[in-house]
Amino acid sequence: MTPSQSYWYNLTTQTVVRGDERPSEDCLGPFPSAQEAEESPAVLIEYARAWLESEESEPFREMAAELDDGTDLA
Fold first, then answer.
1. What is the Cα–Cα distance from 38 to 9, expressed in whole angstroms?
2. Which of 17, 22, 32, 53 is the most exposed place for a label (fewest CB within 10 A)?
3. Are the C-beta atoms of residues 36 and 8 closer than 8 Å to each other?
4. Can you tell me the distance from the alpha carbon of 30 to that of 56, in angstroms, rounded to the nearest whole number?
């Protein structure tokens, strides 16, 4: 993938942008295709859910439970 063929997903505007360099700090990427950039938020959510269900996240879930103030973040 050459820089001029990279795609980024802008989390603020929720759009795919093409750029030689990272367009801004609120962008995910780079991705080799616009389709992969477009799908990136869903992929990240899938990875996050899988991690939360894994044993690796147990210490962090315990820490979050200790800090829980009853606020629903979902």
1. 6
2. 53
3. no
4. 27
Tallying the residues shown for the chain, one arrives at 74
Q: Which residue has the tokens 């389709």?
A: 35
Tens-digit pLDDT profile for residues 12-44:
999 999 987 778 899 999 999 999 999 999 999
CA distances, 71 to each of 19, 51, 62, 65, 74 (Å):
38, 22, 16, 11, 9
Of 47, 52, 56, 59, whose CA–CA distance to 73 is shortest?
A: 52
Q: Record the pTM.
A: 0.67
The sheet carrying 15-18 orders its strands as 15-18, 7-10, 27-31
CB distance 52 to 58 below 8 Å: no
74 secondary structure, DSSP code: -
